[in-house]
Amino acid sequence: MNRVNRADTILAPAFDDLQDALDDFRSAKFQNATGVLQRFVYLLDDEPLTSFLAAVLPASGFEDWWQQAQKIPGSMVGSGVLNWPVDRSRRVALQIELCRALASGKIDLLGFTSNFCYPGMGSNLTGHIHEFADTMLGPLLRDLIKLSESRVLPPVLFEAMGRLPKSGDSTLDALLADACNRFRDPAPSSRKEAVERLWDAWERLKSLSDSNNKRLSVRILLDRASSDANFRALLEVEAGALTKIGNEFHIRHFETNRSPVVEAEHFEYLFHRMYALLHLLLFTQHAGN
After folding, report:
1. Helix pair angle (62-70, 88-104), 10° resolution
2. Domain boundaries, given as residue ranges, for the chain
3. How many CB atoms lie within 10 A of CB 87?
4. Residues 110-128: what's their mean pLDDT?
5. Model pLDDT for residues 8-21, shown as the tens digit of each residue
6. How remote is the C-alpha of 120 from its chain's centroid?
């Protein structure tokens, strides 16, 4: 079976694993199907997907939705009605909860497929498996991938990420490229890694002008960035604050007396703040060369 097109992100291997589970489900005998569905759900509840889903999905309201679905029985096999939300994230949240209920046995898989799937006249149990895979698991995987592609970066930042001049130092340029690539990734864990790479780039940049005297090297960078004394002083405060943040939080050091950063939004804030300074310093350095 052809692979579903998917974003090339940290989530891609997990999507491949889900596709494998879907393929195995499709080829399973009915008596083994619940076990394969359990594997599909396990992958959803494992990293990196579980953090990603927690960040992008709303509360499902599954119990109310399921009770309503049961009140609209069909008059023939497979003709029950499932009213899925138009909004993709709400639909995915419900579909995942339904898969969990089916995998755990809370909802009987055969009963569900008989009521809500139409495997064709005279079909055996294999038809129920194929219909569930086609109408539920396949679209769910497709929508998960679509959600992973829908994280929008602010236009100013997105454009800036493509216009950063070369620093003249291959290690620094590689750190910056890696940080930007990770930040574009929708997985929350990637934003943490992006911030760590960006602070590594900051430490590298601080040593370029004079590798033996980092303070002097920073002074050269800031002097080049602004000839206005007041703005130069502002940049010095900002550079010191960002260095302090890197040292006191779990960005450059991970000792127990350092503070963790927990929220994905906080990593986004830190990335924007550091990137703005690096963007200015590299552009003014490039203009001065």
Report:
1. 80
2. 12-148, 155-288
3. 10
4. 73
5. 567 888 999 999 99
6. 38
What are 168-212's pLDDT values in tens digits? 899 999 999 999 888 888 778 888 999 999 999 999 999 888 878
Tell me the pTM: 0.61
Distance CA 108, CA 141 (A): 22
Supply the angle between the helices 188-206 and 264-288 in degrees, to the nearest 10.
30
Report pLDDT for 64. 93
Cβ-proximal residues to 62 (8 Å cutoff; 6+ apart), any chain: 93, 94, 97, 98, 101
In the DSSP assignment, the letter for residue 232 is H
3 state DSSP class of 249: strand
Q: Locate 57 and state its tokens.
A: 């999905």
Instruction: For residue 66, give both structure tokens.
Output: 């399921």
pLDDT tier at 148, thresholds 50, 70, 90: confident
- Measured CA to CA in angstroms, residue 153 lies from 158, 231, 272 at distances of 6, 28, 11
Q: How far apart (Å, rounded) are the C-alpha atoms in residues 263 and 23?
A: 35
- Tell me the HSE value of 142 on the side-chain side, using a 13 A CA sphere: 8
d(CA 163, CA 248): 31
**Residue-averaged pLDDT of the chain:** 85
With contact defined as beta carbons under 8 Å apart, do 259 and 250 qualify? yes
